[in-house]
Amino acid sequence: NNxxxxxxTSGGNLLLNTTTDSGERLQVDGNARVVTGGNTxxxxxxxxxxxxxxxxxxxxxxxxxxxxHNYSQNxxxxxSRNTGGTDFVINNSGNVGIGTASPASKLDVRGTVQVxxxxxxxxxxxYGATTGRYMQWDESANSLLLKDNVKLLFGxxxxxxxxxxxxxxxxxxDDAGVGALNIRSNSIVAGKYTGEILFRGTADGAFxxxxxxxxxxxxxxxxxxxxxxx
Length: 230
Description:
By secondary structure, the chain is mostly beta strands. The chain is about 0% helix and about 45% strand. The radius of gyration is 34 Å and the shape is rod-shaped. It starts with 5 loop residues before the first strand and ends with a strand.
């Protein structure tokens, strides 16, 4: 009907369904489908929800992945599957979501997070607002490291009801909030790092104090037994 369908410009650009040359080698005004062999094809769609789709060469196949710019709704960028759910999204606030289409923070993961594999780990570091204060999972040492003055806090009170930390000079277990500090065990032993025992408590409430790994005072049902002078 005398309608122009295609044009090759003098510069060698191919225009399909458009007469406006934007300078690209291939310009298509409309959807495009590129078959990449007998099994899969690439579908390029434009509009308010522009996307590039990769799928089996079957219209009814559910095995489709989409790379999509959702302009009409949240103006976000998504990678998703037709089988349901959004696998990856960057919304217009710059938040990244994995397993969610509505990330509530800079990184929002709805599912299990794994770093490395069993027996092949990686370091993970969480920095604080003060230089030199951070928490690190050290994969080579198989240890969780809290730097000086980084506290483990437990409880609902501001600052925590229980605090465990080291302050460059000393180590502390502070019962800083409400309630008592309860240590429960069949046998409680406190000793020096060199292996010497300082004191020991047993299941019936008996208490032993040591000197050079020998029991000196011992609480009993009748009172206190003393070895040596008092």
